[in-house]
Amino acid sequence: METFESLVRAEFAPKNTFLNTASSGLLPARTVTALQEAALIRAEGRPLDPLFQDVEAARAAFARLAGVPVARVAAGASVSAHSGLVAASLPPGAEVLTAEDDFTSVVNPFHTRGDLKVRIVPLERLADSVRPGTALVAVSAAQSADGRIADLSALREAARDHGARTYVDFSQAAGWLPVDAGSYDYTVSTTFKWLLGPHGAAFLAVPEDFGDLKPVLAGWVAGEVPWDSCYGPVAELAHSARRFDVSPALFTYTGTRRSLELLEELGVDAVRAHDLALADRFRKGLAALGHEPLPAPGSAIVSVPGLGGRQPELSAAGIEVSNRAGNLRASFHLYNTAADVDRLLDALSS
Prior knowledge:
The chain is of the alpha/beta class and 350 residues long. Helix content is 37%, strand content 15%. It has 10 helices and 12 strands. It has helices spanning 4-11, 29-44, 49-66, 79-88, 104-112, 152-162, 250-266, 268-288, 311-316, 338-349; strands at 17-18, 73-76, 95-99, 117-121, 134-140, 165-169, 186-190, 202-205, 301-304, 319-320, 322-324, 327-331. Helix 6 (152-162) links the parallel strand 5 and strand 6 (165-169).
C-alpha cells in the first residue's frame, strides 16, 4: 500500500538540500517522463493531439484543486499576463487597493495602466482600508518575501460590504494551502512553485459571468471551436473561461498535468501538515540559535532577517535557499525532510 512517504520518495531524488520552493519547485519523476515523451512527439512528427488533451486535463485538475467548475478556469502563461487582463477590465479612474511590497507580477499591471488610482497599504491593514470607492483589491494569499498569509476572510467580507471585487494570487500558496477560488472574483496561480510544474503555465479562475473581464488577449484558442477560429476575427468566443486563454506552451501543460495529478493523489491537507511541521521545526531551531524569523504564522515560508548574505556559501555547500532583501528565505515542501531542516540549522550555527 502506497503511503505519503513512499509516493514522495518514488517521485523525488534531489541531489542537494533544496529549500527554495518559493522560487521554483522540483519536478516529479512522472513529470520529467511526460516532458521527455512530449519532446519525442515533436521530434518524431507525431500528431500533437495528446498534448492539447493535456492542457484540458491540467485545467480540470486545477479546477478541482481550486474548488470551482472547470468552465471557470482560463489557461495562460504567467501571473502578470492575467493581472494585465484584470487591469484592462477596469474603467479609467478606478481605485485599486494593494498590499505594500506585494509581488510585482500581481500589482505592476495596475500601475502601468496609468489612469487607475492605485492605493498601497500594509498587508495587515488591507481589509480595513477597503472603502466605498474601491473597485478592486489585489493581493497575494501568501507573501513571496516573507510568507505572511493575508487575512482573506476579512478581506472578502470588507470587499462585499463596499462592493469591491477581489483578485487573489495563490502562487505561493496553492499546493500547500487550500484554495477556495469561488470565494473571490478572480484568483490566479502560477504552477512552477508549490504545484511542481514546469515554468510557463498559470491558471486564472473567474466568476461564472466572467466578472466584466474583456478577452483582450483572445486568439484562436479562445474560440468556441478553436480550429475553426484560426483566420480573421474569432466569430464565436468560447462560452467558458477558455475565452481568456492564450496559446498554450504544450510541453509545460503536459508536465503540469502530471504534477497536479500527484498533488491530488497526496492531498493538499497532507502536504500542508508536512510542510508546516518542517517550517515550525526550522523556526524552533532558529530560536535556539538566537535568530528570530519575520512573523508569518501558519506559513510554509520562513524569512530570517540579516542572514540573506549567507545564501552563496549555503549554495556552495549544497543547501538551496533565497536571499530576499537581506533576509534568508527558506521554503518547505513535500520532498523535504527533518534532516534537510537540521542540515540548514547546522550550517547556520557555524
